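## Example pair
The file below holds two records. Each record gives the amino-acid sequence first, followed by its structure token line.
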Amino acid sequence: MGVANVAQVQAMFLERVLPDMPTLWGVEDAFCTWIQPGKSGAGIEIQKVSDRAMRIVFKAGRGGVSGQVDLNGGSFFRGTGTLFKQFTVTTVGFQHAREMTTKAIEACKGDQKALERLSRHEIAQAMIEMKAAKDRRLQVDASQVLAILNTVVNAPTYSVKGGATGQAGNPWGAQLLEDNGLYDVWDTGLAVLRQAGAAVVQDAGVDYPGQNVTFTQAIPGAVIGDKIVTAGSGQAGFAGLPTFVNDSATGFLQGQPRNLPYCQVRSVDAGGAALSLDFIRQSLNLIKIRKPGASMKTLTPYIAPQQEHAYEQLAFAVTEIIKGGPEDDTDLLFNNLRMAGRKAMCETNADPTKLQWLQRGKFGWAQMKSIGFHQPMGEGSDIMWPIVGANGAPIAQVWFALTEQSQLYCTDVTEMGIVKNLAVIAGYVGA
């Protein structure tokens, strides 16, 4: 017999597994949470609707004719009445699905077997991830374009670089994509479906610094400029911020043509320049001029970290740091940034080239089904469903999904505004 070595005694080794499991990806849902009702979303309304479109009736024109008249026998003008119009809002379905094998569930039952029960963990994580996924989709308009192909030579890995040196119309780069996600890939004009349900590799399928995405297979016929879109949306998804905070005169807003003045926000075009106090003040004044009597104090400036950095640089130029003594801490970075007395909301998913002024109380949700488990047999029925194999028999695997049927709407965009086409400080993704 030889000397006892590691190979001979390893059966006696005790295994140590750290009880705390770190999450190695980011979850951001600030805007999605901000426009939810409740304590953190005061003023947000939920309107319960059927499958028919909801109508928002509004006063579009003042009505009445004003002018001078000779009351000594002069003629009066004919009058007019208030002009009433309507927005229409149609809900869309959204889902977040997960699967587990029954053996994996059994192997993780009880503290003696695993750090955490698999089924309990997956259910809790599903709600977190669904809100984060919804937040990303609320950053784009109803076409649901989340990224644009910039190069196609290394398929199934594609560059989705955006910003000044990438594809125009994609300031986020890969920011709005997620590992293990499913996406539809459409041609540049959103007319031809290249690939339905293209799957992203689960482990590091999205390279955020490099602005690349790796699918499990190449996209047939892909060319530069093709669009990566929310799977199953059919180009009719959530109406996100660009649907409402938009100065375009083309297209439609909730059924009304955008060339109507009450379907556009007032904007300041930075033209690629850095954020300045002039841009901020001008954008606020344009809202005030457009809508006298608007609730200016309740406006919330919504920015990405790139513009938070730019705003801090403005503060550095006019701020003098005075220390009371050597015991005082020195912190040259700012926190809780405010613009014209309004606390800024900063989020990584926000468009890095914009400063958007939002009125929380003007948003609402048309909701046919709130976020919850898919229960086709109604409330109280099962939430876990077996997977059926090719032969029609169930297999040892279960599936569950969170679903909702809703749509974001806005009752008045004229009380909001935007500073667009802002420069992004060098060194950031897309810069």
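Second record, same layout:
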Amino acid sequence: MFDDAEIFWISLIKNGCEYYADYKIGELSKTGKKSNLSSLGCDVYSWQELQLFVRNKEADIVLNGNTIFELEFQQDFGRLVDIIYTFNTLGSVDYINLSGPDGKTVFQDDFSY
């Protein structure tokens, strides 16, 4: 069984609704109810490019080419075992690319069938 400290998520939210935004990266978590997460607000009706870079217990959250959070965490994430996409309303994912520490792609999907 997994400890929720090993879970990470990033919630993008419609501009103006950032009160409901949140993220969790290992043991670190923030909510728009207690923190300014206005940088997670976006035009949810347009494609967004969300990137998460993790290395040496540091994580960068990048939205549309702009680093919006730089975080340092303590707990090791362990190995990646699952990816889940969750939407509160309609949503879609167009492309995913996972790379290892050496930068080489270990998983890629453009959802073309």
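Notes on the second record: DSSP finds no helices and ten strands in the chain. The two ends are 33 Å apart (CA to CA).
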